[in-house]
Amino acid sequence: MEKPFLVLDIGGSKLAAGVITPAGSLLAEGTVGTDRTARPNEVVDALLRLAEDVLADQGAAYGDFAALGISFGGPVEYQSGTVITCHHLSGWEGVRLRELLAERTGLPAVMDNDANAAALGETVFGAARGCEHVLYVTVSTGIGAGLVLGGRVHRGANSMAGELGHTHLVPYGPRCTCGRLGCLESVAAGWAIARDVRLALDGGAQSALRSVPRAELSARHVAEMAQTDELAARVMSDVGEYLGLGLARAVNLVNPEIVVIGGGLAQAGEVLLGPVRRSFARFVMPETADGLRIVVGELAPRSGLYGAAALALREIGDAG
User: Fold this and answer.
1) How many domains does the chain have?
2) Are 153 and 288 in a shared domain?
3) How many Å apart are CA 27 and CA 12, to the nearest integer?
4) Which residues form the domain of 146?
5) Which of 43, 174, 183, 267 is the most exposed place for a label (fewest CB within 10 A)?
6) The model scores a pTM over 0.90
7) Which tens digit of pLDDT belongs to each residue from 135-174?
């Protein structure tokens, strides 16, 4: 039997560890919330404690694995395995995370940002199986994208390809987490949805969302109420309009076979996808979108883990 991969996912809201075989079977997993106030070394310690708990439940040790795959929630320099920046956790700039985790586990390691990893995961194990040209877009706390072109992850000259969430969309629009104005993320990410609803409620809008404590209000609440609540429906429609425009620009540029939408908001279904598809059809060049499918990813909420496994499979292979 081929050795499985140990896989780790570092996100803004949770840390995850798992064991996945080269064939894509998930053998074990564990999750814990991310402490956003923790320093990088403290997050790494928490992640490895989680991994060791998962391994203990399996009666396994680090040496039982072929390789370590790592998905990180922010841009990374792929060749060196160094974090470039992270808009949702502080202090990570310049951290040589791949090297650090390889030393701590003794395993050959590969790391990429979460969107690139998820794009490859959906290509190898999920909704884009059999496709060579894939655009993956994650819509969650933030918005990111990963490109698989010719069957390989396209990272660009500086490992920064796919930053769809930080493409300019709205002139003089809201300020984004990157500091600029009018990025796609600033009008369509989960935090932007919650912000827009709070602003509307503060302005006197009538909505069932008033029943949700203001500090707890999230994009999930908005998506869940969009079928019956006018404010929630309007906000989700606006988000779909922006996302459709952003997708059209990306598709016109790279001409993929399939667009896979992942992340927590993808689970909203037609409340989000209906407006996205209508907006996309208005803005895309028809010839570029000929035969294109827009689908929901199959790997959520484990896209980071499966993406890390796909990286290990494609970039390292079974070292056993």
Assistant:
1) 2
2) yes
3) 24
4) 130-296
5) 174
6) yes
7) 999 998 889 999 999 999 999 999 999 999 999 999 999 9
